[in-house]
Structure formats: structure tokens, C-alpha cells
Amino acid sequence: MSRPVFLYDGDCAFCGRCADFIERRVRTDAEVKPWQWADLAALGVERQAAEEAVQWVEHGLAKAGPDAIAVLLRRAQWYWRPLGRIASLRPVSRLLWPVYRLVSRNRHRMPGGTAACALPRART
Asked: pTM value?
């Protein structure tokens, strides 16, 4: 793998809009790619992990959810880096995970979201 990869859910319109924003406004050297189009095995990412959260993958580093977003921001233009550094701080990261999960569970209700964005319900 020559460059980092940022994986998102390509079946989710809200996620796609966020990925478009990243590509337009948060320029980074990472390849922003739907996990459905990626070779997950080659990247060392389990399908379930990719379904549950965005992923940042590069040689020697793998992060998920808000931790992946923090790395992405730290690797972007200079004006995004302070946000990435703040989001990487342990207390902040711990606070961001519940927020990330809340947004993830409700992404079909977010601007640009559709019913296809809804995560499958856990089987009981």
C-alpha cells in the first residue's frame, strides 16, 4: 500500500456526502474509498469493522471511527491539523466515540441521508 486509505460506507448517502466534503475541503494524501470497493483482506480490515465505522489504514497504523477522522485531519492541510490533534487527545477521543455512535446509528436521519443509510438492526 503506497498511500493511506480512508474507508467509508459507500451504500450510505450521508457517508458519501461526508466523503465528498473530505475530498473537496479536507484534502489529504489518503485515498478516500467506499469499503465495498476496497480489498479489505489486503488492507487487514474485517468486514464487520468496516460496516461499523470509518477506517484509516496505512502501513503500521489502523484507526476506526473518530480516531480515524482525527488521523485524517492531522494529515490534511495545516488549518485542519489542530482539530485532528485535539480529537486525538484521549479524553476528547473518549467523548467523541459516543457522539460518533449516535450519528452512525441515526445517519439515515442526517442531511442527505436515506433509508438505505440505516444500519442493519442487531439480530436477537
From this structure: 0.88
